[in-house]
Design a protein that fits this description.
205 residues; alpha+beta; Hypothetical Protein Pfu-838710-001; two-stranded parallel ribbon; 4 helices
Length: 205
């Protein structure tokens, strides 16, 4: 248990092409999550997750039915993020209850998550489905502030401080509806990386 308690320390990056290293995870998981409340950086999330099925072309409702006996349910309260730090208190929730809540939610985020170790850091790579396709993001978490980070070559730009890439925003505003506008924005502004968290090192491609 970290001395920081219910605080999480993470950095997020946009990924344009699924990195080959993601295939090294033998057990990717399917995540379905809904937000009961989201405003001003605060959010309450219900999540159901389980082993990812082989086929991912089914409808969101059909994908939910694949989360069977091995599914895990959680409820999480989140606070606003600042400097790569966010309050996050997660508690276990009965998977049946979590599934019923998610299946009744108006806006659900679906994604497949792969986990890999790169150097001394554990990374997760999320491939979003349904309305948020073709979004992919990579995320690294630590027990304390994520400083002096070696950033993998598959990370195109950092979105840690861009609220549009928070899942509660994506639940209401699917990436598919603004992907082209964002790509034009990225082409104009170029990649950006947070410079206030120590020294960024960039892995060569």
């Amino acid at each position: 248990m970290s001395d920081f308690g219910d605080f999480e320390f993470e950095r997020k990056f946009l990924v344009l092409d699924m990195p080959a290293v993601a295939a090294s995870d033998p057990s990717p998981v399917l995540i379905a999550q809904a937000y009961l409340f989201a405003a001003d950086g605060y959010a309450v999330r219900v999540r159901l997750q389980g082993p990812a099925p082989a086929g991912l072309d089914a409808s969101p409702a059909e994908l939910l039915t694949t989360l069977g006996d091995d599914a895990i349910g959680t409820m999480t309260a989140k606070g606003p993020a600042a400097g790569g730090t966010r309050y996050e208190a997660e508690r276990e929730l009965d998977a049946l209850v979590a599934g019923q809540i998610v299946s009744r939610a108006a806006h659900v985020v679906l994604k497949v998550r792969s986990s890999v170790w790169l150097g001394e850091d554990g990374w997760i790579i999320d491939r979003f489905l349904a309305g948020n396709a073709p979004l992919m993001m990579a995320e690294v978490e630590r027990d304390g502030p994520v400083v002096d980070l070696t950033i993998p070559s598959f990370c195109t730009t950092e979105v840690s401080e861009d609220d549009r890439f928070r899942n509660e925003y994506l639940a209401e505003h699917p990436f598919g509806t603004w992907a082209e506008a964002y790509r034009r924005e990225l082409d104009t502004a170029g990649p950006r990386f947070v410079g206030s968290l120590g020294r960024n090192q960039f892995e060569s491609s």
